[in-house]
Design a protein that fits this description.
Length: 218
């Protein structure tokens, strides 16, 4: 139940969605114009490029595999399926920041395949889905969020109780992702692919904040 989630999860979900929004904005605005925080469109585009451009198809395939490898790293470091203090969330957030920082540097040097590092960072973050008593929070794409929110509204219209906290969580994630897109656009106008440095720094700050909070709480 979402009611059992600790309060700090909402702040973290908003911030992570904001980070993903900025990263995805850079992917869409960059020279490859490729979404990197979610994969549905990338898989479809891969199918198209397989029939027209081998080099583009290889890049897309690399992005997909990198996203999965980032998720695999989260799966390796996180034990169990419940959200608890003391897990490797701070370590993973630090790694995410490092991946984004490396991607920013290499993309700025015109290494196109460096976008795979940003994709791995998003896969890592998405796998930080917090599963706690049946509550799942994902922060790098919104399809499931809008679907669940629509289901909740539909059920409420026929008289079922609306889970207010769950609804607020979903709205925070949507708002964070949208704000990330806005800020990502503004920053990209000035810094181009180096805009990825900003979400990288945000990941480092989150990592340190979580580590301090955990040490004070345990």
């Amino acid at each position: 139940m979402f009611t059992k989630l600790p309060k700090w999860v909402e702040y973290g979900a908003f911030t992570l969605a904001f980070i993903a929004g900025v990263v995805n904005a850079v992917g869409l605005l960059g020279f490859e114009h490729q979404a990197i925080s979610h994969l549905s469109g990338s898989v479809t585009l891969l199918g198209i490029k397989l029939m027209s451009s081998t080099s583009a198809a290889l890049l897309l395939l690399s992005i997909l595999i990198s996203f999965m490898l980032g998720s695999a790293l989260s799966g390796f470091l996180l034990a169990g399926r419940s959200l608890k203090l003391g897990r490797h969330y701070d370590t993973l957030l630090f790694i995410e920041g490092a991946l984004l920082l490396a991607s920013a540097y290499l993309l700025n040097q015109s290494y196109v395949y460096a976008i795979t590092l940003a994709s791995a960072a998003c896969g890592l973050q998405n796998a930080l889905a917090t599963n706690y008593s049946g509550a799942v929070v994902r922060t790098t794409h919104l399809t499931g969020i809008f679907t669940d929110l629509g289901l909740m509204i539909g059920k409420a219209l026929k008289g079922e109780q609306f889970d207010t906290r769950k609804g607020v969580m979903f709205l925070l994630i949507i708002a964070g992702f949208l704000l990330g897109g806005v800020i990502g656009f503004i920053l990209f106008e000035h810094y181009q692919v180096l805009t990825l440095v900003f979400p990288a720094v945000a990941c480092f700050v989150l990592s340190i904040t979580y580590r301090v909070y955990r040490l004070r709480t345990l």
